[in-house]
């Protein structure tokens, strides 16, 4: 049975041909499936080589984010020892990358609405490589702070851009699973960050070993930077900016397959008003967009409070719980031994991030984003409650409660709010402000991450784990309430319908 060169939408070949003669949207071509020659529609069409390439190159940035941010938790004790950091300097370094992500997402993420998805997709990775080089050779605290902030700046820029290059290039029916599977590489990076830290410390048990931790990222990041020159520009973005001919050429490249279908494309420009209206950040707070902005931003901020606080400081909490952390390490070997122990425990807990994202990938396009986010928030609160109970015990019982609570939290946050907030932020806005909307949501959310990174060690010392966990339990439950109150379900909906 051979595939027909004439492709149809759900209504049949003849109707599709009629629509083609008048022009169609880029997303409708991406969403369509082929007919067999005798007229039977196929259930789905496999992704093209270009679609898979775009997915992989976008996923790589999330991998680097997880690797760098969570590896910092392992590197920080060594950095603090080498530079003799004060409590304030320690907090500044812990928050530098996350603050960079905040600024990058908020002020640079929207650049792809103006310049296009591809140019920003390339530039952010190239500049990231430069900051990684600076990070690995930083001679003092100031340069280290600048480098960590710069790395975060580029990772933040990628939050909306990486999402949109995927979501605007793949079919609506599996958009959730594809975006979330790419996002899942953040969890793989987080796990590998702890593993890399452990391995480097095992091979080079020196204070300056943290430099190698960051240096190992440079070569793969450079490869990804060069590979991004080969991807296509978003046809939907080109069409929204009135560049019909180039949009058609890019769409043909995107959908190149064997046997080829569609054999030809004809795109229809949006209304003249839509083409001229380039969009601005002010549009995020007007009309229906305001609801989307609240829905995309506030729950994300609330989940970042817990996810980054627990994620970054898991080694610190584990070391403190079992008593291997001391106010003053006797020597470098003592410091390295403590850090290795904490890295191993952190790696074990980070495995649950991966299981959580697998669940999100499998369920997002079946159950829907809203229920996963709500259930995830409630599950996070339950995990934190179990961890909080550990403060009333000692020994093995205390460690068991910490591990069970953190494992449940890590699974639930990645199945629910950590994954779904990222996915939804890139779906609920119209194309002309999609990057601005996703960037604003990511930047607003990182206010929570930066606050946690800076205040977590201070609060941990002054109010203790029990009260700290109680605060995070409340914010998790609040996230579930706000998600339900402002919900916008996007499961299975074409991005064209978000206009």
Automatic annotation (TrEMBL):
InterPro entries reported for this sequence: MFS_dom, MFS_sugar_transport-like, MFS_trans_sf, Sugar_transporter_CS
CC terms in the record's Gene Ontology section: membrane
MF annotations from Gene Ontology: transmembrane transporter activity
Pfam families assigned: Sugar_tr
Keyword line: Membrane, Transmembrane, Transmembrane helix, Transport
Localization per Swiss-Prot or TrEMBL: Membrane
Family classification: Belongs to the major facilitator superfamily. Sugar transporter (TC 2.A.1.1) family.
Protein name, as recorded: MFS family permease
Organism: Pseudochelatococcus contaminans
């Amino acid at each position: 049975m051979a595939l027909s060169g004439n492709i149809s939408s759900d209504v049949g070949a003849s109707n599709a041909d009629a629509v083609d003669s008048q022009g169609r949207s880029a997303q409708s071509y991406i969403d369509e499936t082929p007919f067999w020659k005798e007229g039977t529609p196929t259930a789905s069409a496999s992704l093209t080589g270009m679609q898979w390439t775009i997915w992989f190159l976008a996923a790589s940035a999330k991998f680097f984010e997880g690797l760098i941010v969570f590896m910092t938790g392992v590197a920080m004790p060594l950095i603090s020892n080498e530079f003799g950091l004060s409590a304030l300097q320690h907090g500044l370094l812990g928050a530098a990358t996350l603050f960079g992500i905040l600024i990058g997402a908020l002020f640079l993420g929207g650049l792809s609405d103006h310049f296009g998805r591809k140019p920003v997709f390339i530039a952010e990775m190239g500049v990231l490589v430069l900051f990684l080089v600076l990070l690995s050779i930083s001679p003092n605290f100031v340069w280290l702070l600048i480098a960590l902030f710069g790395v975060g700046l580029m990772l933040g820029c990628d939050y909306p851009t990486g999402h949109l290059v995927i979501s605007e290039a793949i079919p609506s029916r599996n958009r959730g699973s594809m975006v979330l599977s790419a996002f899942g590489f953040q969890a793989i990076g987080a796990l590998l960050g702890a593993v890399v830290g452990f391995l480097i410390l095992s091979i080079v048990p020196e204070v300056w070993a943290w430099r190698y931790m960051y240096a190992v990222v440079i070569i793969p990041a450079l490869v990804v930077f060069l590979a991004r020159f080969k991807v296509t520009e978003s046809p939907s973005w080109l069409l929204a900016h009135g560049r019909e001919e180039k949009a058609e050429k890019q769409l043909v490249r995107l959908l190149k397959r064997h046997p080829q279908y569609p054999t030809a494309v004809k795109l229809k420009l949006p209304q003249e008003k839509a083409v001229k209206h380039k969009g601005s950040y002010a549009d995020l707070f007007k009309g229906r967009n305001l609801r989307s902005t609240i829905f995309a931003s506030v729950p994300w901020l609330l989940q970042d409070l817990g996810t980054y606080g627990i994620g970054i400081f898991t080694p610190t909490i584990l070391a403190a719980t079992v008593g291997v952390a001391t106010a003053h390490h006797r020597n470098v070997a003592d410091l390295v031994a403590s850090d290795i122990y904490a890295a191993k425990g952190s790696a074990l807990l980070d495995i649950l991030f991966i299981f959580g994202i697998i669940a999100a990938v499998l369920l997002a396009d079946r159950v829907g984003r809203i229920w996963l986010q709500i259930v995830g928030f409630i599950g996070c609160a339950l995990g934190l409650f179990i961890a909080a109970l550990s403060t009333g015990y000692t020994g093995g019982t205390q460690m068991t409660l910490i591990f069970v609570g953190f494992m449940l939290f890590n699974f639930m946050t990645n199945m629910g709010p950590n994954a779904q907030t990222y996915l939804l932020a890139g779906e609920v806005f119209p194309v002309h402000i999609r990057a601005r909307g996703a960037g604003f949501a990511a930047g607003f959310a990182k206010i929570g991450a930066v606050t946690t990174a800076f205040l977590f060690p201070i609060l941990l010392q002054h109010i203790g784990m029990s009260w700290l966990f109680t605060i995070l339990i409340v914010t998790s439950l609040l996230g579930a309430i706000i998600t339900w109150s402002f919900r916008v379900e996007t499961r299975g909906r074409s991005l064209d319908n978000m206009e």
